[in-house]
Amino acid sequence: MILFMGGERTAYRDPACYFYNGCYYLFFTVSEKENGYMYNQIAMSKSEDLINWSSPVVLTETDNLKNYCSPGCVLEKDGEFILCFTSYPMPRPFAECSIADNTARIYLMRTKDFKTFSVPEKIYAKGKSCDFEAEGRMIDPFLIKKDGQYYLFFKQNGVSLSVSKDLDNWEFRGSAPGGENACVIEADGRYLLIHSPKNGIGIKESGDLANWEDKGIHTLEQESWDWASGRLTAGFAMKSCGGTSSKYILFFHGSRKEAFPETHGEATLACAFTDDFQTFRYEP
Asked: Is there a contact between 209 and 98 (Cβ–Cβ < 8 Å)?
């Protein structure tokens, strides 16, 4: 089911969703081409039924030296809701370099009402004593809480992991093979890692959040979707909170093969529905 259709100037990418007070809140990247440069911002839309979505509201500034984008998830802590995301600086024209430079890092911001949000705060995923250069390029954060600790997954040398007791002081735990846009969901007593390989929705399974077993890659009905002819990617899965008879909702985006660069791709946001992450349908 298509949610927001991309076009030559504006693309919609990298979905993440949270259910609160009867509404699904969908966060995503709005990517715009302007005078040869790429500008990314985080936007939000909401829906009560997964069919009718409000017009996107942009949450971050227009600045290609920051280019905040790729929301990972929302986590509740002490009456606040915390959204994690990426900075994706693209200071050069996209014809010269179509991806972020090495200053890409990960951030969070806070809200109590999904109306006003705090200024972005940098996540020191390798500890505050690690200097900026030594941190290295990192993108696509995702947070979960388990047994009183916070687990932070992010893209660096595969899927990297840090842990914290307070969302402020982090300890780096290493990396495992995997693609971009990590999303971790608990299903039937196991953890599923939804990630983005070169193309498709990759799935890995684990019992301990450290050792992952490949469970295949799904491309859904990509071959019949012209808006996903280039790449189908950025899967985000969540348990259904109503509006569908399926157990889980899978949000993702597709980009067109002929649209340059892929980091824009005239990308379109869509969602699918599943009970088992093996078979999917496209209407609620």
From this structure: no
pLDDT in tens, 138-191: 999 999 999 999 999 999 999 999 999 999 999 999 999 999 999 999 988 899
pLDDT for 188 equals: 83
Please, are residues 231 and 179 in contact by the beta-carbon 8 Å criterion?
no
Phi then psi for residue 182, to 5 deg, are -60, 135
- Please report how many Cα atoms fall inside a 13 Å half-sphere around the Cα of residue 13, on the Cβ side: 32
- Write the pLDDT tens digit of every residue in 88-141: 999 999 999 999 999 999 999 999 999 999 999 999 999 999 999 999 999 999
Distance between CA 223 and CA 51 in Å, rounded?
A: 24
Ordered alpha helix ranges (H), the chain: 132-135
Q: Which two tokens stand for residue 72?
A: 């990972």
Residues facing 143 on adjacent strands:
152
93 CB-near residues (< 8 Å, 6+ apart):
36, 37
Q: What tokens appear for 215 in the block?
A: 């469970």
Rounded CA gap, 73 and 87, in Å?
15
pLDDT at 5: 98
pLDDT at 206 over 90: yes
Task: State CA 120 to chain mean position distance.
Answer: 16
Cis-peptide, bond into residue 91, ω within 30° of zero: no
Residue 271, both tokens:
């969602």
Cα separation values, 243 from 22, 70, 73, 162, Å? 10, 25, 20, 34
